[in-house]
């Protein structure tokens, strides 16, 4: 099975006229997408290992190797899930902050327009 990639902390966002906060929010969303893909690949790899373990007769060395790989994949999946949970919380917080700022600006605009 192909190795699952390392954490993607790519900060090479294009320097356009987007605000820093908007780029940061976009970065969180992209990071979530990347982690979901890695988690999905990790789970597929885990299914392959499980099917090999349940399939044909294996030597004790091959079985140990597969059990070790299974354990490693389970740890990796667990770490991805924890990281995803934190990123989703951050994304939710950023969204609520954006809504609050929008509402504040709407109230200020309505006040000045009247």
Structural features, described:
Helices cover 78% and strands 0% of the residues. The chain is mostly helical and 114 residues long. It has a domain of 69 residues. Keywords: Coiled coil, Membrane, Transmembrane, Transmembrane helix. It comes from Bos mutus (wild yak). It is a single-pass membrane protein.
What attributes does this structure have?
114 residues, mainly alpha, rod-shaped, disordered N terminus, CC167, membrane, transmembrane, coiled coil
Radius of gyration: 22 Å
- Weakly predicted, low-confidence segments: 1-18
Q: Note the main sheet.
A: none
Into which percent range does the helicity of residues fall? over 70%
* Helical stretch tally: 2
Membrane topology: Single-pass membrane protein
Transmembrane segments: 95-112
Coiled coil: 32-90
Region (Disordered): 1-24
Task: Offer a quick outline of the entry.
The chain has two helices and no strands.
Ordered list of secondary-structure elements with their pairings:
Elements: H1 20-54, H2 60-113
Helix pairs in contact: 1-2
């Amino acid at each position: 099975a192909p190795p699952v990639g390392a954490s993607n902390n790519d900060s090479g966002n294009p320097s356009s006229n987007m605000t820093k906060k908007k780029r940061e929010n976009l970065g969180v969303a992209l990071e979530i997408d990347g982690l979901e893909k890695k988690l999905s690949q990790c789970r597929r790899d885990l299914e392959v290992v499980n099917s090999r373990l349940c399939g044909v007769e294996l030597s004790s060395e091959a079985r140990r190797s597969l059990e070790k790989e299974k354990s490693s994949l389970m740890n990796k999946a667990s770490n991805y899930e924890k990281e995803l949970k934190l990123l989703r919380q951050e994304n939710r917080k950023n969204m609520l902050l954006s809504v609050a700022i929008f509402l504040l600006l709407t109230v200020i605009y309505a006040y000045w327009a009247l």
